[in-house]
């Protein structure tokens, strides 16, 4: 007899009502293999995610609580968290707006070169991040293609926090486009027509009908872009200038610690990032569950 | 409110969806657009609604030209084939949508909207389901929510695209009767699209039969069935047998047999003869009739449905026999069409 996780859900009352031929606790399901697949899933997640991550905590625990706080919450570390999380959030927000626009165009219109545009969206995925960083720096540096025109306007992009946001916008774009695209394609044209037939203008139709329908997908895209941005290292370090307290991101600070053979210090900062990221992603997930539940009850 | 459609045509690329359509719906009338898929019936409905714009021609409501008005301003109620409910809104919010998107100056107060929604849900017999989401309803209930939502803006014209297409037979029948009552009670002018002839004949005041982008016939249901205007209508509506014949001297000839039919001035030459299964006389073999061999006989309704093969025709004839001693498979019989219609070939 296999006592699977599924049997935990059955109550004693259900058990009593069941015919005696079927032993208590054994629920018949048309989908076999829950036990083995669930077991493997847990094992795999442990192996790939949980074990390496717990090593971070174990390592940083070697510091002792006082020292941990000293390193993990030092003024320089705090400034880097603010930049990493702030820039990631800003970039994800920018991507949510323009990624939605791109997804809209890709889904709604037929035009020559649509597939080419679609492939271009994925480029940030494929490109080594360092290449992206060098390219962006070349463009936005004060003497670069775009930088030379922005400089007289008083806008500095390269070597400032703004540069960090620009780099994160670049790497995060595909996440939003690819999350929203299928949901948008699935959203029937007739829903928009229905809104129009009831007298709704384009703005009302968008804000009250389309946006709520694709909201969960958009949030997924935001979360993915945000998560990617928080951990981004390669593309950022070239354009950021990496001035402590100003344009130094947390991943760079960690690498700096490592280069000084301060492994415990590096893991302390990593632990703080990890907990913060997990908490934020958890909140985003909960919002999603809540909004999905309303739609497909 | 009367609807006048004149000279409407519409092409999609090389495909002619509608060619020069004229149609009139009188105020208070319930009209059915009936036709096979690709006949242009849905395109015509969407043009009347303002969801599609014609290449030529005009649409007028009560004599006022609305051809270039978008659907937003036409004030018609439209029920979509798949209902197109807003999934993220409750049933009550769906129904209220048309009122809550109005400009502030014309928008009713919140309490008034709530009262109207309550009233409409009561009307469509979904009084206690206002707080549910569309995903929690059955097909028939969703259909009624779609209807309540369309009626919330108090349209004078109700347009329905295959309103019963996605429902099972029993629910379909109930909803049909209910919709007809609703139409009469609210004094609407309604047009609905269907490919189901039974539905069209049972529900509509007049039926518009369409094929290949043109109107074949506009008549009351009885006339559509009893007096079809074209070979297509005869074939499409109700059961029928068709025989390729040649007309000579007021008689129809088929494979060396001749029989009398009302030729109605049909010119001599090739023609197609149509007759209903119940419009035949079955006589003994050898009489002046079409000889046939019974291949199947089974009880149906009050009589017997007979399938009989004749020489020179692939498909068997379908015939109804109401007498006491029905012929059995293998029997040789003579078939004499009674109320047959001739349509010139081609």
TrEMBL record, chain A:
ABC transmembrane type-1 domain span: 81-284
Record keywords: Membrane, Sulfate transport, Transmembrane, Transmembrane helix, Transport
Any Pfam family matching the protein: BPD_transp_1
A GO MF label: ABC-type sulfate transporter activity
Transmembrane regions: 34-58, 79-105, 125-146, 158-177, 209-227, 234-254, 266-287
Functional note: Part of the ABC transporter complex (TC 3.A.1.6.1) involved in sulfate/thiosulfate import.
Record-linked PANTHER family: SULFATE TRANSPORT SYSTEM PERMEASE PROTEIN, SULFATE TRANSPORT SYSTEM PERMEASE PROTEIN CYST
Homology family: Belongs to the binding-protein-dependent transport system permease family. CysTW subfamily.
Protein name (database record): Sulfate transport system permease protein CysT
The species this protein was found in: Alterirhizorhabdus solaris
UniProtKB/TrEMBL annotation, chain B:
One Pfam family linked to the record: CysA_C_terminal
Gene3D superfamilies: P-loop containing nucleotide triphosphate hydrolases
Keywords, ordered alphabetically: ATP-binding, Nucleotide-binding, Sulfate transport, Translocase, Transport
UniProt cross-references to SUPFAM superfamilies, sorted A to Z: MOP-like, P-loop containing nucleoside triphosphate hydrolases
Any one Gene Ontology cellular component term annotated for this protein: ATP-binding cassette (ABC) transporter complex
Presence of the UniProt keyword Methyltransferase in the record: no
Coiled-coil zones: none
InterPro entries the UniProt entry points to: AAA+_ATPase, ABC_SmlMolc_Importer, ABC_transporter-like_ATP-bd, ABC_transporter-like_CS, CysA_C, Mo/tungstate-bd_C_term_dom, P-loop_NTPase, Sulph_transpt1
GO molecular function list: ABC-type sulfate transporter activity; ATP binding; ATP hydrolysis activity
Source superkingdom: Bacteria
Domain ABC transporter positions: 3-237
NCBIfam families the record matches: 3a0106s01 (TIGR00968)
Protein name per its UniProtKB record: Sulfate/molybdate ABC transporter ATP-binding protein
Species for this entry: Alterirhizorhabdus solaris
Native organism taxonomy: Bacteria, Pseudomonadati, Pseudomonadota, Alphaproteobacteria, Sphingomonadales
